[in-house]
Amino acid sequence: MTKLPTWADVVLVPLISLLLAALVSALVLLAIGQSPVEALSVMVKGAIMSPYGWGYTLYYATSFIFTGLSVTVAYHAGLFNIGSEGQAQLGGLGVALCCLFLPWPHWSLALLGAMAAAALFGAAWAAVPAYLQARRGSHIVITTIMFNYIAAALMIYLLVDFLRPQGSMDPASARFPAVVSLPKFHELPLIGDFFLRYTPDGQVRLNPQGLPMYQKVPANISFFLAILACIGTWILLWHTRLGYMIRAFGKSEKAARYAGISAVKITMITMLISGALAGMMAINNVMGQAERLLQNSAEGAGFIGIAVALMGRNHPIGVFLAAILFGFLYQGGAALGLETTIPIELRIVVQGLVILFTGALDQMVRMMLGVFFRPRQA
Amino acid sequence: MDYATLLQMLDTTLRLATPLLFACLAGLYSERAGVFDIGLEGKMLMAAMCAGSVAYLTGSVWLGMLAAIGGSLIFALAHGLASITFRGNQLISGVALNFVASGITVLVALALFDQGGRTPPLEGGARMAEITLPLAETLRGVPVLGPFYADVVSGHPILVYVGLLMVPATWWLLFRTRFGLRLRAVGENPASVDTAGVSVKRLRFAAVLIAGVLCGLAGAYMATGLQAGFGREMTAGRGYIALAALIFAKWRPWHALWACLLFGFFQSLALRPDVLANIGLKIPVPALDALPYVLTVIVLAGLVGKAIPPRAGGEPYVKER
Fold first, then answer.
1. Annotated domain spans of chain B
2. Do A356 and B100 touch (CB under 8 A)?
3. How would you label A303-323 residue by residue, b for 16+ Cβ within 10 Å and e otherwise?
């Protein structure tokens, strides 16, 4: 098989994979009697053609950046962490406990506390599968899947029996106090101006107190923390001794062992970081948006992290771009559900196809591309 | 707990264990041949949707079953293509196919019936009839064993019995035939099979397709036997429980049967919290739901003997040049 130049491997392979996934999705749409062109235009219009759409797209993207980085870090150590979903649920529990039971004077302090709690709980949930992989050689994929289910059961139990306020029927915690509410994009200086509401004649719409009115969006300052997390992950993986050890271990366990890198230590540390990143997603969805802990708070974002990491070629820049793409897919999918008869489940199909083409059929894509990069015969 | 309740629970256990058993045996073939199959869940779901839709449209449960096998086989082929032909990551392929199945089943069911992703309820010939085994009523008078035979063993759709028969059949095929020997060898040491002049790819595809057929039967049973129609996400993690049972059984057919019956029993317990409350145990229902997964982790931790998967599992075979 022809070896591809690096730029083709990094840029073309994910793009072709994405195109193939889109093509198959279009065929599926045609098969159920819908128009792929209409679907795409509704998605584009709903997700990126208005500041309001971006407010949702970036909200989803924030969660996906965290889970994508979580999968990425584990991947570099040769570990396939399917457990980001469960770790994100537990992160949500950490955030909820932190926000409900500690008296915070200001949201900024609460944010620091919640981040620590989310990371701690997420890492704790990754610790057992990590230990079993490191010490017992039990396959991390199977154990993390099991831990996703155990997390779901645990959350139902805790929400119904402990965190549910008296007299409430739905399995959710009480609302967090208003003081821990994170600033949303429309409440921030400068950025907020994008979300001003206008009257038909172009004037800024004012409320009865004479203050400008904003379109409410869920994107919040955790988006900037997600960017910081990208930079942090990049520094960790490529500019620290630990990152070097993680990557060496992932490339060749035998060589890493020979170089004196402890397999147990690297597996544990990597999975703890991975779990912490997945857990930190909760500051976006639990603290930033829902402002209470709901059942199934992660809503599959942990699994999307797999697609994001694969699509982003396990590099923080790639993860960032892929997360925005999936944010677009999620918000666009929601617009489809509202405005057309195309079911919202289309986005799960696209997500699955992207994982399939980028993660499992990448050799096929390379073979297809290899035809164009064959060295010239002399 | 009186005897009648116990019989009722065992009856439910057998019903709930059957889809687990089919899926578990499917995983057994695939993984014994060295192809990990996380995608059992997706194949079952796809099969359930095909069975529910076709059985409703044609009024024939058997055409539904064929469609189920067909739907499941398409996913099995995709998995084979990704993990055998193109030597991709088998785990990622399985995960991906689960997502595709989860979405596409709802899309198709909505497009066909527009009932919120369900198929309309099946009736009459579109459902799998329950079979009364011979002499069930005459033997009912026999103490203890009579009611057990009449209530637990008898009175299930035919696929329950097919599932039970698949256990010895699988054992015989894997451990007493040449095909079985090669299939197991290809999961342990594919190079040796290749050296003997047998195609590794063909054997692995055979295993993956057998898994597809079995998952098809599991899905058909779920949609037309266990329940009357397909509902979105109706497999509810059973593919993963089957995977857990497979590890619990350490990749052996008879043990797979016991593991599936055990996990089926937990599921039936989770449906009857009153039974546990009556004998003075207060176990929350979520804990029962989580029990199969916790048990699997304990097995994986090596606390109940070591679970060693087939040696070449998960590795694509590259023929040397």
1. 3-126+155-300
2. yes
3. bbbbbbbbbbbbbbebbbbbb
